[in-house]
Every structure is written in C-alpha cells, then in structure tokens.
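Hi P.,

Sorry for the delay on this. The queue was packed all week, but I finally got your sequence through. Input first:
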Amino acid sequence: MKTILKNIPFFIIGSFAISNAVASETFVCNTSEHTVFVNATPSNEFHYTAWNKPKSITDEPDMLVVGGEEITEGTGVCRTTRWEFNNSNVKYIISTPMACGVKMPPPNATGQLSVLINDRHIQSWWCLE
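Then the structure:
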C-alpha cells in the first residue's frame, strides 16, 4: 500500500505535465484589457482562454470556452485566419490582421479580438505586440 501512495504525487504531476504538453499554443492576443490564448489539442479541438487585465496568465482564467472553429480565408497578403467561439449568446472572434482592405491594422497589431452578443458587434480590440 505504501508503494502505491508514494507514486500518486508523481503520477498526478506527470499527468499534469503531459496534459499541458498536448495543447499547443496557436495564437496569443494581448489587448489593452485582456490576454487571450487560442490553443489546439492534437484532435484539433480549439480552446479560448482569457484573463481580464491586470490578472496574470498564472491566475485562474476569467473565461474558458472549448470547441471553437478555425477558419482561414484569402490568399497572399489578404490571407487571414480567425477562430470563433460560442458561449451561449456570446461569440468571441480572434483574427489575424490582413495587410489589405479598407481598415488597416496598426503597425504593431498581431490580430483582433471581437465580441458579439446575439450576433450584434459589441466591442473590438487590437492584439498588440
């Protein structure tokens, strides 16, 4: 019995390390108000994890939505990828910036975070370096 109990902490720590290793970081968005990670599992299931600032990513996240969708459109400099996550009537969209179009992103933008409620645009923030 002692041998089994001695190995339990190692098993728990080892399982935690393995579970973190299987979700790869796909995209990080740092806005003025939020830090958002989009992660993909090996089975291509997407996770949206968000912290409201000034919280740190070492704190418990404020929002976790599992089961998002990745959509890539366009070609060349007009190619963009976005991830869409639904949480009841709220939709979170994270997108990479396009270097073409009417609305050009700021020079240090890595993407954009948009929030829609009942399919109505509520707010957007640029993801900045």
